Amino acid sequence: MHDDTVNQPISSLSAEINQKNKNFMPMLSVVIPTYNEKGNIAALVEAVRDALGDIPWEMIVVDDDSPDKTYELAFQLAHKEPRLHCIRRVGRRGLSSAVVEGALASNGDFIAVMDADFQHDEKMLKPMYEKMIAKKADLVVGTRYAGDGGVGDWDETRRQMSDFATRLSRILIGNKTSDPMSGFFMLRREVVEASVYDLSQQGYKILLDIISSAPMPLHIEEVSYVFRNRREGESKISLQVMAEFLFQIIEKMSHGLIPGRFVLFSAVGALGLCVHLGILFLLKSYHVAFLPAQTAAIGCAMLFNFFVNNELTYRDRKLKGWAFIPGLILFCLICSIGALANIGVAELAIHQTSSWSLAGLAGALIGAAFNFGAASKLIWERVKKPKRK
Ligand code: GDD
Ligand code: MN
């Protein structure tokens, strides 16, 4: 095939490339995690289209098989707007992991992450994009806590909670951004690719996750905006998401020494102890003999612990159907060995310290650690974390 660039002088060729580069506009992928956002998604596509003007863009909706069938509407809309794509994930839940999946499936040089409910101001996408280029930034954070930013009409409790979470996250990343809990930001795709192996992908704090996991120093810029009220539907943030966040902070602070899951497992264990004592007192008040009463109390506590751990601590690897029975049997076995370890260590410790409470605590900690390790490994083993290649 004839190619006339072959006969062109090199200098004119590079001038042409330079001219092309000058006009080059990085492609922007807007990743939108959705769960029950049917009422927002059509208007959002239009709002983003209007806001972005001549910037080359695509939008990737990552929907977790929403009961309201957001994905269905997204696929329909994509027929009219081919720059829109939808990933429908089945059997998985989570804002962070949806964002990661959308980012990895995107084509953009830049990736923006934004909620579907209009709380993030889509008009800031353009200034963010321009700042990415002008400042050669790696990351531009949409912030509520600097410049003209704000949280709108939040009540005092929500304000305080957000403030508390922001303070906590400072423990991890210092003052790198004024709004580490922001769910609204734009970054270079290389940043996602470089940090993806180290992201926890749990909960809501994906930005914090990326900043604390990126292996390279990040040039971070900010653009302020006012957080709006949700347009349709309701928030999906739950107590559980908040608790998970707290445990993850503990895990990071202890450099992985105290896994967040262990804190939760121990908290469930402490609750189990209350169940144990409660049942013991109840049976005692009915004049049941100590041994059968204690045995019944142990049984109930184990059942309670197993059930709650399955629902809460290992929610992402929950045993369902028949798998529940062998799991429960194994759990009782493990706890019995854990109890023996508890007694053994306490017995040793009492000779060393002669303090009842210290010895008791040492025994309980070792017992809990054993139960946690064995249960995680033998009952709720999960797929291994992917390794960096
Ligand atoms: N795919 C998927 N899976 N999307 C989800 C899930 C999920 O399990 N949970 C929530 N989303 C989507 C929602 O549909 C919405 O588009 C977006 O994630 C944010 O969810 P909201 O439930 O509206 O969160 P919020 O308003 O309480 O929290 C927002 O503000 C926080 C700071 O105040 C989010 O932006 C948080 O990231 C942010 O920390
Ligand atoms: Mn919201």
Question: What would your notes on this structure say?
Answer:
With 389 residues, the chain is an alpha/beta fold. It folds into two domains: 26-241, Spore Coat Polysaccharide Biosynthesis Protein SpsA, Chain A; 260-378. 54% of the residues lie in helices and 10% in strands. The protein has 13 helices and seven strands. It has helices at 10-23, 38-52, 70-80, 95-105, 125-134, 156-173, 189-195, 206-213, 239-253, 260-285, 290-313, 324-353, 356-378, and strands at residues 28-34, 57-63, 84-88, 110-113, 139-143, 185-188, 220-224. The chain has a seven-stranded mixed sheet with strand order 3-2-1-4-6-5-7, sandwiched between helices. Strand 1 (28-34), helix 2 (38-52) and strand 2 (57-63) form a beta-alpha-beta unit. Helix 9 (239-253) crosses helix 10, helix 10 runs antiparallel to helix 11 and helix 12 (324-353) packs antiparallel against helix 13. It starts with 9 loop residues before the first helix and ends in an 11-residue tail after the last helix. Residues 1-6 have low confidence and may be disordered. Manganese (II) ion (MN) binds at residues 115, 117, 119, 230, 235.
Oligomer: single chain
Radius of gyration based on Cα positions: 27 Å
- Discrete helix count: 13
* CATH superfamily heading of the largest domain: Spore Coat Polysaccharide Biosynthesis Protein SpsA, Chain A
> What series of H and E elements makes up the topology?
HEHEHEHEHEHEHHEHHHHH
Annotated CATH architecture of the largest domain: Alpha-Beta Complex
Distinct small molecules: guanosine-5'-diphosphate-alpha-D-mannose, manganese (II) ion
CATH topology of the largest domain: Spore Coat Polysaccharide Biosynthesis Protein SpsA, Chain A
Largest sheet report: 7 strands, mixed
The helix/strand class is: alpha/beta
Low-confidence stretches: 1-6
Helix content: 40-55%
Mean pLDDT: 89
| Total discrete domains | 2
| CATH class assignment of the largest domain | Alpha Beta
Distance between the termini: 40 Å
Strand arrangement in the largest pleated sheet: 3-2-1-4-6-5-7
Shape: elongated
